[in-house]
Amino acid sequence: MGVRAKLARPTVFFFRYGLAAIFIVMGFVALAFAPPTARYEGFSMCVGSGLSILLLNFLFRMGARGDHDRDDEEAARDFYARNGHWPDEAPPADARRRRTPTA
């Protein structure tokens, strides 16, 4: 792992979870110490911001996982095209398997 990759891990972790945690904690601090006229607005703003950061991170990661699923499905289809059976199935008993001609 290179120096940039080692430095990127804590940075990414901070932006994924640390920033959201800071906003949520700031919301509770605002709830406890802000003047009564701005107490609930500050709490709502900060906690809402922190929760939205967490939600956007979750949705982005779900989308990225979908890309991996599509890549796995494409690899399975390529395997089927080459061998005539799916990767998780046993090969056919007969020796005459469908082969794709190579150019």
Automatic annotation (TrEMBL):
Transmembrane segments: 12-34, 40-60
Start and end residues of each stretch annotated as Disordered: 80-103
Domain of life: Bacteria
Keyword vocabulary terms for this entry: Membrane, Transmembrane, Transmembrane helix
Protein name: Uncharacterized protein
Biological source species: uncultured Solirubrobacteraceae bacterium
Upper lineage: Bacteria, Bacillati, Actinomycetota, Thermoleophilia, Solirubrobacterales
